Amino acid sequence: MTDQSSQHAYILATAVDRLLEQHMRLPLRSMLGSLELLGMSELDGEQRAAFDGLMVEADGMAHAVERLRSLCHVEIADGPVAQRPFVLPELLGAVAAGVHAEVAVKVDVDVPLRLVGDEAALRRLLTELVDNAVTHACGPYLVHVSRGDGGVDELAFSVSDGGGGLSDIERIILTRGRADAGRPGDGVGLHLVRRTTVRLGGSVTDSASAGGRHTICVRVAVPPADPPPAAMEADPAPARVDAPPPVVAGPAPRRLHVLLVEDNAVNAILAQRQLKLLGHDLQVATRGADGVRCALDGGYDVILMDRHLPDLDGVQAAREIWAGEAGAGRQRTPVIAMTADAMARNRDECMAAGMDGFLTKPVDLEDLRAALDGVAASLARATTQDDIIDHGVLGVLAEQLNAPEMVVELRRAFVAELPLRRLRLQAAIRRSSPGDVFETAEVFRASSETVGARRLAGVCRQMAEAAHQGNTAQAHRLIPALREACQLTSTALNSAPAPAPAPV
């Protein structure tokens, strides 16, 4: 491609991305937010069926738009690859839970769980590979992460299925980057995988085994994150990330006093309805200066701050709030950025300024719930370790097996699988399928009891009991408690000492 052609492609991709953002993505997110609120109201059987159909179609459209935007982004990306810390099990769990099929996840024991790199690009890449496998091949499906052989930081991300492999055209698209191969529209996802892999400086291969298994493997350098401070060493999540904060809340989350600084009336109305559904109190300020004044008057647990306000930039408003609180000797109020600009640059600026979270408008109800439950966690009283983990269970197991190292590996594997197990259970709950919820919760409960995760096992038991009674709404209300238990369990197990070897 000539320089002039490359420039034309860049201009076209940029224009298409802007059109998709302004005229498709944002209206779709607004529609999905309104539909979500509608779905929480009382609907009869016919209305519920119509609602479910609308949600499926809207989700499909939203997915198609995100795919098109991803293609635009890999075409216009010309800066350095993002290097941000992320947690590997969280990424893999989100990928596996995003498809309507059972996807197993395996992470080799020598692979670090904390990494630094472009998490969004890796998530996009793996999602396309898993979608391709589920759509075009039979199971079982497996995502496997292992050490690569091309360098100390190289990891191999493999997605395998029981199908017969790729066609000749698809293999050309994947391994040679020939987007013009085949008919228009063929292999869009594979083209995206190829371009994303090249962008990350990696390589991609396709293989088939004698047993019929088909595997696509992407090898890319992803270095481990720096060791966390000693006080945080047991926590598998970064102290501050650009996603909603870790969710920690009890069965009845604390009612928060929320200040929303937002000049758009439609977004303010949607936020008011969402916060009412979540059981929180809300005060609205429509200008940055008014938001600063209200915040410094005190009485708020958290501030939701629009990035672009008519009189004051949201980041500057947050800094003025924190400076005023510091001058008055008051505790810092967490501020969560809210913006319609979902580009990584904007997110990075907000997080670098010290924001405590980042939400994209129109705000998804579950993302808002997660962010506010995370704030409630920081306000909740500390929970003792004995309430979370029964360390005697692991001690007995180590003694029975006479192999403490096996118990350590069991503990590590359980922590690595926690995000995927949680997301699967949440997905079953949101499908309102009592049978699926009961089965998934019971399996989760049994595995939790094996490692002595008593609080987590208790939440899973409550969810299973609710599903057994056909009350999926009650199971849904327990999701914050599930998230809390997973977070606390992960922290407790990572910080637990290795079981002592049995006496000879």
Briefly characterize the structure.
With 504 residues, the chain is of the alpha/beta class. The protein contains 18 helices and twelve strands.
What secondary-structure arrangement, pairings included, does this model have?
Layout: H1 3-39, H2 45-76, E1 84-87, H3 88-97, E2 103-107, E3 114-117, H4 119-136, E4 141-147, E5 154-161, H5 168-176, H6 188-199, E6 203-208, E7 214-221, E8 257-261, H7 265-278, E9 281-285, H8 288-297, E10 302-306, H9 314-327, E11 335-339, H10 344-352, E12 357-360, H11 365-379, H12 385-388, H13 391-401, H14 404-430, H15 434-450, H16 454-468, H17 472-477, H18 479-495
Parallel strand pairs: 2-4, 8-9, 8-10, 10-11, 11-12
Antiparallel strand pairs: 1-3, 4-5, 5-7, 6-7
What class, by secondary structure content?
A: alpha/beta
What is the CA-based Rg, rounded? 24 Å
Give the distance, in angstroms, between the N- and C-terminal Cα atoms: 71 Å
Low-confidence stretches: 181-185, 228-252
Mean pLDDT: 77
Query: Portion of residues in helices?
Result: 40-55%
Would you report the number of β strands?
Answer: 12
H and E string: HHEHEEHEEHHEEEHEHEHEHEHHHHHHHH
- In the sheet with the most strands, the strands line up as 2-4-5-7-6
Strand content: 5-15%
Determine the number of helices (DSSP H or I, runs of at least 4 residues): 18
Largest sheet: 5 strands, mixed
- The shape is globular
